[in-house]
Design goal:
The protein is mostly helical and 159 residues long. The chain has 8 helices and 5 strands, in the order H-E-E-H-E-H-H-E-E-H-H-H-H.
């Protein structure tokens, strides 16, 4: 890949993200506002399969104490619950509550209305070209993930 192609993606993606990213999520039932960071934590949890706080902190690149504070807030907001593991009562798993699952289902990285406004700034042909380009990049991303290349890269392997 040419260096200019990589530079173009690295220059353009943040512009789109910062123009259209969702800064907070509103619970559709209670109208409570959840920060984008809290919604990101919810996005990494499940209502059936438990996750340890240590694993979650490691995955999200924060200290366990930082994650504990975040989970405390989410627990007070009734979005997360802590449960003792059946097989080891010393360990605690985190699970989404029904309210947390509702937020997770509603969560988008980008704000649909802002994406729509951005696309409306393009004429029909340029919009079609832009969307076709995004489809191609998304296909390449899916192929890269399916090939295992991303996992090898994250483990410190070669490109």
């Amino acid at each position: 890949m040419s260096k200019s192609g990589v530079e173009t993606v690295l220059r353009c993606y943040p512009q789109i993200y910062f123009a259209c990213h969702r800064r907070h999520v509103r619970d559709p039932k209670t109208k409570t506002v959840v920060s984008a960071r809290q919604a990101s934590v919810l996005d990494h949890l499940d209502d059936v399969e438990g996750t340890s706080l240590l694993d979650l902190a490691k995955h999200m690149g924060v200290t366990p104490s930082t994650m504990s504070l975040m989970v405390d807030r989410l627990e007070r907001g009734v979005y997360v619950r802590r449960e003792r593991r059946q097989d080891d009562g010393r360990r605690v798993d985190l699970r989404l509550t029904p309210a947390g699952a509702r937020i997770k289902r509603q969560q988008n990285v980008l704000e649909p209305e802002l994406v729509d406004a951005m696309l409306e700034r393009l004429d029909k042909d340029r919009r079609r070209q832009a969307l076709a380009g995004l489809e191609l990049l998304a296909e390449a991303a899916q192929e890269m993930m399916a090939s295992g290349k991303l996992n090898r890269f994250l483990r410190g392997g070669t490109k």
